[in-house]
């Protein structure tokens, strides 16, 4: 601001501004010298604001006046750093966003008010505030089939690149062992901790394991209580390593021979995560992929530090084995000769799978597909050792009256099997029977089902009917056709 002194405009010294213009915080002006009033173009503006205080004359300035604030021009202030605008205010404690402010910068904020369309403006008042440093965002991801979701705790600009999850085809910046890459002393706190997702033969892998890569550290999100701190890479990588990973993600030539596709300058916010369909570049093969992500808050000319994360696994969903369930069951009440207090259920359920059935068995960090047949578990003509196992091995024998029909020859791929309900007694007419398998099923190459097949059987209307209702768990995934 300026004052007229002897017909000459003189700037108010900075030291005087610092002593007379209070800072504004979220709760309003902070008292300065025991009061909250400030400098103004006309001290009468304070008559209603501070009726019991006398504002000294030297708090008055002569420039700017209200018209300089409502219609600023280059003659008022010659600076491309000037930020001007207007907002509608309906109460005293409203929050308003001021765009285009620079970080870590002290501002003088000149204010005038008017009511409606009167064209009458208040005198100018001035306050100080300082913007904060730009904060590095916290980024994290989710992966679902071929879609990655990028999340941020604030407005951010991100770049991402899709790679096969394969050290052979990754750029060195991502494929190198994390514990021997460029790390800060912060890694000492995490060295002996274990991954929440990557496994080795002894369980979840330690961060110091030679097979735990830089890309793995980007996938790993570190939390404190319920708060995300960032990726392990964010917390431990030095600036040189971060720069090399940023270049690998953002640059055209830095992606390694296996890079599938990439995008830069994509926006994400706390309220609007970014969804990336990774098949937009090409149809993915039957391997695991990983979407590496880096990003910053602020602007391209004034950015925060970079944050890093990665979405894994990105994988094309393959067809899953399904089943057609054909029941031939009857309910017989106790009055009609049923063997239990609630009667009995008798008959068969035929299961017809869409392809030969395999057991999908996990052992440590590996999975095995075991072909199944409908022969007995042992004895008979089953060779030893046998490539095939009996489906009866994976049937939960919890009720002696419910059995599988294992009359087939060993070594013959299984697509159809019958479950026998041999006059199963019911404790009550409403009792529900279960026929459960204890492992996931899959085909020779198809994906395993989400959960083992479980079949539920009950009398539909035991007081009036012999009908039986049959259902399965997760029917949308399991059933090839509705149960009739």
Kindly estimate the percentage of residues that lie in beta strands according to DSSP: 25-35%
Shape field: elongated
Oligomer: single chain
Radius of gyration: 36 Å
Structural class by sheet pairing and helices: mainly beta
Poorly predicted residue ranges: none
The share of residues in helices is under 10%
Strand segment count: 28
Provide a count of the helices.
Answer: 7
Main beta-sheet annotation: 4 strands, antiparallel
Q: Could you tell me how far the N terminus lies from the C terminus, measured between alpha carbons in angstroms?
A: 85 Å
Arithmetic mean pLDDT = 91
With strands numbered from the N-terminus, the spatial order across the biggest sheet is 14-9-16-17
What does this molecule look like?
9% of the residues lie in helices and 33% in strands. It contains 7 helices and 28 strands. The chain has a 4-stranded antiparallel beta sheet with strand order 14-9-16-17. A 4-stranded antiparallel beta sheet has the order 18-19-24-23, with no helix packed on it. It has a 4-stranded mixed beta sheet with strand order 22-21-20-26, with no helix packed on it. The longest helix is centred in the middle third of the chain and has 12 residues, at 239-250. It is elongated and about 120 Å long. The termini are far apart.
List the helices and strands and how they pair.
Blueprint: E1 2-5, E2 8-11, H1 14-20, E3 24-25, E4 28-29, H2 66-70, E5 106-111, E6 125-130, E7 139-144, E8 147-152, E9 156-164, H3 172-175, E10 194-200, E11 203-206, H4 214-219, E12 221-224, E13 227-231, H5 232-236, H6 239-250, E14 261-268, E15 274-277, E16 289-296, E17 307-314, E18 323-332, E19 344-353, E20 358-363, E21 366-373, E22 389-390, E23 402-404, E24 416-425, E25 433-436, E26 440-442, E27 454-459, E28 468-472, H7 475-478
Parallel strand pairs: 21-22
Antiparallel strand pairs: 1-2, 3-4, 5-6, 7-8, 8-15, 9-14, 9-16, 10-11, 12-13, 16-17, 18-19, 19-24, 20-21, 20-26, 23-24, 25-27, 27-28
